[in-house]
Amino acid sequence: MADAAFKDVPEIFEVDVGEALSARTEALSTWRELGPPDLCHVMKSTGRNGQRDLGSYHYVSGVDASSSASLAAYINSLTYAIEDDSGWFSKGSAWKVRNGCYCCFNAFSRVDVRVDVKIPGGVNAYIVDLRGERHDLNQDTQDMWQEVYLSAILRAILYSDDSAYWLDAYRKLDPITTPEGELRFLQAAETLFSKGWQVGSEPEIQVATIVSNHLTSAIMKYFGDSGRYQHSANLFEKLSAKEPELSSLLARSYIGMNEEVKAVQIMAAAIKQTPQSYTLLHAQCEFLRSKGNYEWALKLAKQAVNCAPSEFVTWEKLTELYIDLGQFDSALLTLNSCPMFTYNGRDAHRNLTAARVHLPPKGQIVEILPERIKTEDDEADPALLRLPAPGLRGTWSRAYALLTRLVSQIGWDELLKTRSSVFVMEEEYRMQKAQADVRTYTPAATPTTANGLPKREASLPDSATLVSKAQADDDASTRGMVSPGHSQNASAVGESEGLAAEASPNGIPLIRISTESDRERAQAQAEAEAEVEAEVEQAEGADSEKAVNGNGEAIENGMGQAAADVLERPVQAAAGSGDGAQDGDSSGGPGQEPFSFSNKRLCERWLDNLFMVLYEDLRIWTIFRAEVAHFKTQHVAYRKTALEWEILGDLGARLFHKEEAKEAYTRCLDSPRYSYKPWSKLLDMYAEEGDIQRTLQVAIRVAAYQWGEYTEMTYPTQIARCVFRLGQIHGHAKISYTLLSMGLPEGIAKIMEGYLNYGKVFKVEGYDF
Question: What is the pLDDT of residues 67-79, one digit of tens each?
Answer without folding.
Answer: 999 999 999 999 8
